[in-house]
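Sequence only, no structure available. Ideas?
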Amino acid sequence: MGARIVAAAIAALLLAACTTPSPPPAPTPAAASPSPAAPSPSVPPATWQQVALPAGLRPSALAAAGEDLLVGGRTDAPAPMLVRLHDGSPAARFRLAPADPNAEAADLVRLTVAGDDVHAIGSMIAGAHSNPRLTVWDGSLSTSRLASRPQEFFTFGGHDAGPLLGTVVVDGRPVIAGSRVGGRGPYGLLWTRRGHTWTSQEPPSGLASTPDREFGFSAVAASGDRVVITGDELGLAGGLTQLPVAFVGGVAGPWQHLPLPVPADPPPVPGQLTRATSVACTAAGTTCWVAGWARGHALAWPLTVPAAGEATAATPAVLPGDPPGGNDPTALVTLAGGRPVVTTNANVPTTAVQCATGWLALPGPQGRTTALAAAGGSAYAVSDGVLWRLDLPSC
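Reply:
I predicted one. Tokens follow.
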């Protein structure tokens, strides 16, 4: 509740302007830094195409499974559903085994694939306060089966419960990242599994809000044996300030607090909040990409996350697009063959693809994108409850 109050206060203090819609963008090069970028390569225009899904499926979550794509969500029944797509067409439907009423009506909102293993997080909104009832699932690609694993209520629930960001696999072990709310505000938390039982770890000091700064957490990814969490830092001393940040650490710690650089140019758009809202890391290597919005501009930061030592963030790419209505926009990033693909959720949505000679700007999928993944040479996005596909240009 405290985090919601603070967020509302920020919005009230900072909101001072709105934007006017502009016509849809044609493919153009995007700036790789505050200075002009090198011209993007000449490629044919690419457009997002709607993907037909099994009747009744309302998609929420995506995950690459090799060249295939997993799509999770729910039906109107309500009931969870998980399907596997090959080249954009349904190839298999998972057999789901919900073990309690919360799982039977869950929406699969997070998906993770690691080798043959599949992990999912389900959410079912219920109760007098419309709080999410969270469920955890696991299964395999080879069996096309996914089962829920009931947990004690306070494992993920309770009066101080926060959102779960997702599951990552570190050293072959699944780890769930999320947050709770304490007397000083939100704090990050990790859960590990023994058998089918999940247990929260001791709250890391590096992920805890303090009297003079409050942390927010938005997304998680794994880089080798390290976990990367993105979000924001709200300064409470001497006036409200907000910075995009990343947190990098191991399951047992320690945790590095990494402020992300925000360029002075272009000039800020008044009334806009600042957050890092998505992160994706290479399967093998030390490179991650973070996407978010700062001072009214969509940004993409390259991160270097070494196996040992401190992570570093380089100057971000400034991506095209005006902020949408409201003051807290989100941008999503995925990796396709190691190169970042970002959907900005700008006022007129855009997609930015990194090429060897610069960033290629393309139209975005229709609506507000809430999930993004890349598989088989294509990017897939869930926008306003519809699955879209973009065949990525060669560049």
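The first strand starts at residue 28 and ends at 30.
Hope that gets you unstuck.
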